[in-house]
Amino acid sequence: MKMVSAFLVVCIFVLSYNGIVFSKNMQNYDYVIITTDDLQNSLINFTQWKETMGYNVKTVTTSWIESNYKGNDIQEKIRNFLIDKYEEWGINYVLIAGSRNKIPMRECYPLRDYHENDYMVPTDYYYADLTGDWDGDGDSYFGEITQDKPDFYPEVYVGRMPSDDTDKMKSMCERIINFEKNNGAWKKNVLLLGAIIFYENQSQAGYKLHRSDGATLMEECRKDIFEPNGLLCTTMYEKKGIRPSIYEYDYPLNHSNVLSEWKKGYGIVNMLGHASNVQIDRLVWDHDDGNNIPEYPGELKYIPFLRGSDSDDLSIEKPPIVYTSGCYQLWTSRNIGRVFMEDGAAVAFIGSTAGSWYNISLIWNNEDDGGTYSINYYFFYYLINYHQKCGNALYNSKEYYYNNFIFTRNNREWIFRCYDNLYGFNLYGDPSMGLSNEKVDANPPEVSIQQPENGIYIFGNKIIPFPVPLIIGSINVKATVSDESGIERVEFYLENHLKASMEKEPYEWEYNGIGFHKIKVVAIDSNGNIGGAEINVFSL
Prior knowledge:
By secondary structure, the chain is of the alpha/beta class. It has twelve helices and 30 strands.
C-alpha cells in the first residue's frame, strides 16, 4: 500500500511538473483587485459577492507587486504584473482600490514637445492596454503621439475605487453590492442634465463659436437609446437668459432642482456643462448691450448647478451611475467624482482628468460628429443596447472613438485634443458593474494582421525583408480574427476612414495608397466587444 501511495505521489509530481495537473498556482482569475495593505480587509465582502456572481477574484497588494516585479515606478510594476498574469490567469477586469495618491494613474503627454502640466493627462488606460509601448522613445514622457505606441484595444477593463479610507471603501463596496442586488424599477430612471456650452457668435480662445447646447446630446441619448429600451427620462435644460434651450424639458436646470430630483432615485445620471474638479456650471446669456454678441466677462454668467460639496446632501440609499462630459471633473486626486463615490452620491462616476473637447467643426448634432459628446453617447449605447458593464462600455466607446473620430497629424492642436479625450475619460467604480447583475462576455475579439508584415512588397508579393512594410502597388491586407461568442463584422480602416466591412471570412481588403498610412483592422463580436490591430505602412 505504501508503495502504491509513493508511486501516486511521484506520478502527480511528474504530471504537475509538465503542466498537466492544474493546481492553485494554475488557477484562472478573471477579476483582479489591486490595493494597498491597509485596504485589503475592507474588500473581503466585495470579493465574496463577486465570487457568488461567478467571478474568480484575486486580490493583490501593491507591496507584493513592488517586491516581485521590476519597473521604474509603481505604475510600471503594476502594468508588468498585469502583462505577466493576463493570459495565465485569464484576466478580464481590474479594480484599482485606492486613491491616485497611493496607486497613481499614468501621467501622459500627447504632444512630444509640451511637457508642462497644462498638457499632461492622467489616465488608467495605461493599465488596460498591455501590448502597447507607452514610452517607446524611453524619455519617461508617456503616451506621446508620434514617439510612443499605445495600443488602444485594451486587454482588460479597468475601474478605480478612489479612496484610502477603510470605512469609505467598505461603504463604496456595499453600495455596489446593493446596486447589483436590486432590480427595482428605479434603475430604469434616467436624469438628463444639459447646460448650454456656447452661444452663437460667442468668442473664446481665438475662436468664433457656434451654438452648442448640452441638451442636444441628452436628447440624442434619450430618443436613440434610453426610451427605445424602456427607460424613463427626466430632463433639465436651460430656461433662463437670452436664447435659452429650444428643447422641451421637465424642469429648468438649476441647483435646487438638480438636488431635489437626484434624491428621488435614478439608475443613471447623464450631464454636460462647463466644469472643473469641484463643480459643474450653466452658461447663461444674462443680458445684451445691443450688438447681439454674447460677451464674457459682462453678459455671460457661469452658475453652478452641481458642486462637489453637494455630495453629502446627495448621499442616498440608491445612488446612480453618473457620467459627466465636462472638463477636468477628475483632474486632481481629490475631485467631485471621488467625493460623490465616497459619500454615496454615485455608485459609479465617469469623468475626465483633463480637458473635454468636441470636434474640429465646433458643431455637434449627433453621434456621427465625434468629439467628447460621441464618447458619452456610445458609452450608453454599449451599456444599454448590449447590456455591457461600465468598464466594457467605457473602453468600447473610446475604441469606437479612436477608430472613427481621431484627427490626422496635420492639425497638431486638434490631434492633441483627440488624445486628451482618449486618455482623459476614466471610470471610478467597479468595471464589472452594469444595470443588471448577469455576467456577460467580456473578452474582446483577437485580431492579427497577417499581411503585410515588415518587408518590401511589389504588387502583393513580399520580395525581401525590410524594417517596415514598404508597399509598391496594391496589396491585399489579410487578417485573422477569433472570438468565442462569434464575430458580427470585421472592418478595415485607413486612418479613421472606414474602407470595408464584412461579416464572413476571408477578412481581406485591397489597399492601394501613396505615402505613410495607418491601417486598422477592427472586429466586433456579437456582444459588442471591440478588438483590433493596426500597422503603419509606407507606399510608393
